């Protein structure tokens, strides 16, 4: 027997296809949403990890800034202590300078020279005095140059003058004081020369 299907099968196939298309579209949308969510969660995890690194680096930077500030304070204190030490060393070196000046001046002054005035201004000394002859003044200048404390003697004025009944030469001499370090070096070099055979 022959069966004839009189139902509209094409419309049923169309309805079935449209349902499949809708289901496929919904599946694609769900897949796209899942993919988007996955990418979003990966990037948000990376962003949060980078933010954690930034926070950690900011904390480390803050600690380093504190350490740098403390190092700067320590350097400042060290410089202050070094400057104080330098002042104390200078004072220590100059403590007996007056005694050494007068001892050396008495030792280098030849016979026939009479000193009348001694004036110190900083590292410069001005000496006024009388001499019997000009050669004695020259010998005085040579012994000043050879001394360990004085340097650069300069004769400013030399003139004839009367002292009592005698005719003498009146002079003004200027010299500089060697720094204590230079005097110590010259002492050490002199001792070194003495010890060499």
Automatic annotation (TrEMBL):
<feature type="transmembrane region" description="Helical">
    <location>
        <begin position="20"/>
        <end position="43"/>
    </location>
</feature>
<keyword id="KW-0472">Membrane</keyword>
<dbReference type="GO" id="GO:0043683">
    <property type="term" value="P:type IV pilus assembly"/>
</dbReference>
<dbReference type="InterPro" id="IPR007813">
    <property type="entry name" value="PilN"/>
</dbReference>
<feature type="region of interest" description="Disordered">
    <location>
        <begin position="177"/>
        <end position="197"/>
    </location>
</feature>
<keyword id="KW-1133">Transmembrane helix</keyword>
<dbReference type="InterPro" id="IPR052534">
    <property type="entry name" value="Extracell_DNA_Util/SecSys_Comp"/>
</dbReference>
<protein>
    <submittedName>
        <fullName>Pilus assembly protein PilN</fullName>
    </submittedName>
</protein>
<keyword id="KW-0812">Transmembrane</keyword>
<dbReference type="Pfam" id="PF05137">
    <property type="entry name" value="PilN"/>
</dbReference>
<dbReference type="GO" id="GO:0043107">
    <property type="term" value="P:type IV pilus-dependent motility"/>
</dbReference>
């Amino acid at each position: 027997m022959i069966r004839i299907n009189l139902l509209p099968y094409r419309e049923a196939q169309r309805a079935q296809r449209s349902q499949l298309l809708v289901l496929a579209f919904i599946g694609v949308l769900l897949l796209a949403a899942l993919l988007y969510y996955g990418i979003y969660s990966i990037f948000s995890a990376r962003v949060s990890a980078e933010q954690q690194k930034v926070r950690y680096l900011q904390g480390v930077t803050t600690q380093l800034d504190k350490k740098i500030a403390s190092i700067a304070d320590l350097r400042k204190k060290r410089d202050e202590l070094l400057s104080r030490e330098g002042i104390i060393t200078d004072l220590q070196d100059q403590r007996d300078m007056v005694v050494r000046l007068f001892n050396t001046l008495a030792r280098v002054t030849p016979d026939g020279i009479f000193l009348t005035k001694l004036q110190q201004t900083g590292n410069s000394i001005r000496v006024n005095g009388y001499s019997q002859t000009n050669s004695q003044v020259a010998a005085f200048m040579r012994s000043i140059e050879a001394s360990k404390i004085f340097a650069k003697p300069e004769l400013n004025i030399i003139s004839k003058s009367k002292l009592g009944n005698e005719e003498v030469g009146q002079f003004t001499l200027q010299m500089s004081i060697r720094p204590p370090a230079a005097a110590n070096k010259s002492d050490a070099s002199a001792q070194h020369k003495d010890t060499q055979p």
